[in-house]
Amino acid sequence: AVVSTQSTGCEELNTAHYKIKCPKTKFSMVIPEVQTFLQNNPNRQTVILFGIEAHVCIQQTALDLLALGYKVHIVVDATSSRTDTDRFFAFQRMRQAGAHLTTSESMILGLAGASDHPNFRELQKLIRTEAAETNLLQFPCL
Hints:
The protein is an alpha/beta fold.
């Protein structure tokens, strides 16, 4: 996992176990520290992205990772922008470039693999919590 030291506004996030912590000064997170981490872990061919500013930081990171040959998944209901228009066109552009768009529930259950996962009950509690409206259904071509 990678995290920036830019204020998240979510201090309850426990980042102690993250592999890389670096200052967020570029829009793309494909920075030397991350590139070195990826090069030193050649078995990691898939990257999952979510966060703020889909049309800037997430998009530029996704495009850079795709150019390097990584499979990129964007968790659309965990990724925002200041406006729905920016978010919609960012998702469109990333999909056209080869990124896979998915939802948090789909990603969580996909990573778990099956109901016999040791943490499946805890994961169920996460996805059963009522989700906030994402406004994504107003864009049927996504």
